């Protein structure tokens, strides 16, 4: 028996009925003779002319929904004579199978490492690349997503789903204008190639949602709202469409409409950590902190390591008047653990510390910033926050003038004395330790920068503080 493939196989069926020993290399003349006979046999075969079959519209729609119709011809991944032997590809196949299981188990990093290795052996294989695109998307490594999508589309430019994924990845890269172009192209392909029913409609809705997000990033709110409304036309209870419309209306000052869609989103929110957290943020923006508490609390239960959910819960508790509960949330070990795991813990500490100060929880805010500086000693933003409140806190027991001066001087040096806010903080710190002449001179330096940089509110505040320093009085934040 002879089998024609990149690595030909020849078996003696009488002596080896199980075909365990490939004789092609041991008996090359026999293999060559059988290959020649196979070639002559194929040349003598006739190909029947295709018969046209009439299909009724219902059957045609069913075939489209199953993916048997539509699309365009795809070029072979490799040309005849260059294709790899299936036996040599078992490692790639097994890697893809294992990676698929890892993706299902949300072990995306492990899947990505395995698939990158498989693609080195077979860069033309689409299935491992498709799984790699999904893994990197989940990991939010959008540069890698775009790289692999472009490689995929070079082999199969007609794949609508991968084209949609490219649009989503471009949004993740901060390139919404490019994303709009790609996503609109994806929608045009769907419109010209057929089905908008069932599974395909769900994919189209996903593309519309991504397109709406891209328009939002470009502040093209009417176009964004149009995409979300088109989703709701076919899926009236779609959570993401309601949520996204609510964010559009909130951004454009249409409170009643925003609340209407937020209410619909509340009824349809999936029981997953990120959607719950994002809905909590939206409800907080709409002045509904009690409902926001419920969403953040559930998000924390679903994923105790999600920093934004912990921050959101504490902020919503403060906003709803539950100060003691908010402080307990800040003291919870899982709160600091989530912060420690956050990729951008400095921004979270900066933002939440200010929330704590707004609700007069100065000690907690100072602790938050101090802990952050221990982890990231070079953070100018946290050093500035801490310096300001150590100099100006209305609680006498929390102020520390010498430490404030040290921190503020370091920030001023690091910014080459070219930003008004660090100099404003340094002036306040000098005033706190009684060096009012230095405070006046530094504050005037800050005022000149604020005026040059066209920051009227800050300039006005600095003028008020200069009057205090001239009168030999330090500045204090409101108690």
UniProtKB/TrEMBL annotation:
| Keywords of the record | Repeat, TPR repeat
Keyword Repeat part of the UniProt annotation: yes
Q: Does the keyword Repeat apply?
A: yes
GO-annotated molecular function: identical protein binding
Q: Name one Pfam family in it.
A: TPR_19
Q: Which PANTHER family match?
A: LIPOPOLYSACCHARIDE ASSEMBLY PROTEIN B (PTHR45586:SF1), TPR REPEAT-CONTAINING PROTEIN PA4667 (PTHR45586)
Write down what this protein is called.
Answer: Tetratricopeptide repeat protein
> Which organism is the protein's source?
marine sediment metagenome
Q: Where is the organism placed in the taxonomic lineage, from the top?
A: unclassified sequences, metagenomes, ecological metagenomes
């Amino acid at each position: 028996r002879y089998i024609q493939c990149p690595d030909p196989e020849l078996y003696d069926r009488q002596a080896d009925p199980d075909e365990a020993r490939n004789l092609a290399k041991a008996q090359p003349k026999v293999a060559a003779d059988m290959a020649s006979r196979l070639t002559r046999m194929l040349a003598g075969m006739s190909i029947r002319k295709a018969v046209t079959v009439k299909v009724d519209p219902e059957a045609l729609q069913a075939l489209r929904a199953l993916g048997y119709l539509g699309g365009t011809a795809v070029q072979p991944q490799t040309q005849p004579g260059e294709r790899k032997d299936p036996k040599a590809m078992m490692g790639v196949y097994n890697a893809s199978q294992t990676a698929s299981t890892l993706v299902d188990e949300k072990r995306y990093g492990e899947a990505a490492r395995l698939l990158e290795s498989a693609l080195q052996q077979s860069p033309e294989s689409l299935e491992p690349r498709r799984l790699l695109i999904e893994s990197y998307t989940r990991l939010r490594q959008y540069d890698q997503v775009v790289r692999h999508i472009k490689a995929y589309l070079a082999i199969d430019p007609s794949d609508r789903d991968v084209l949609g994924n490219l649009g989503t990845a471009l949004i993740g890269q901060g390139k919404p204008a490019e994303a709009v172009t790609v996503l609109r192209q994806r929608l045009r392909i769907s419109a010209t190639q057929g089905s908008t029913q069932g599974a395909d409609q769900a994919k189209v809705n996903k593309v519309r949602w991504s397109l709406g997000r891209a328009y939002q990033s470009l502040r093209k709110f009417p176009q964004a709202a149009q995409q979300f409304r088109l989703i709701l036309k076919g899926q009236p209870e779609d959570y993401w469409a309601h949520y996204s419309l609510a964010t559009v209306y909130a951004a454009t000052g249409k409170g009643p409409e925003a609340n209407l869609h937020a209410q619909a989103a509340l009824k349809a929110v999936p029981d997953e950590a990120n959607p719950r957290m994002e809905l909590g943020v939206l409800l907080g923006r709409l002045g509904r902190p009690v409902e926001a508490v419920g969403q953040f609390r559930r998000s924390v239960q679903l994923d105790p390591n999600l920093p934004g959910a912990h921050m959101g819960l504490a902020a919503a508790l403060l906003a709803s008047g539950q100060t003691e509960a908010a402080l307990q949330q800040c003291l919870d070990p899982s709160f600091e653990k989530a912060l420690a795991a956050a990729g951008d813990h400095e921004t979270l500490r900066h933002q939440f510390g200010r929330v704590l100060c707004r609700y007069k929880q100065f000690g907690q805010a100072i602790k938050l910033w101090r802990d952050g500086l221990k982890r990231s000693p070079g953070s100018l933003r946290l050093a500035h926050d801490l310096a300001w409140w150590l100099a100006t806190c209305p609680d006498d027991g929390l102020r520390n003038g010498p430490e404030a001066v040290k921190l503020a001087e370091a920030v001023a040096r690091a910014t080459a004395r070219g930003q008004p806010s660090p100099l404003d903080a340094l002036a306040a710190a000098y005033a706190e330790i009684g060096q009012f002449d230095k405070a006046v001179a530094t504050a005037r330096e800050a005022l000149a920068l604020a005026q040059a940089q066209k920051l009227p509110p800050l300039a006005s505040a600095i003028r008020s503080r200069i009057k205090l320093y001239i009168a030999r009085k330090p500045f204090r934040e409101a108690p």
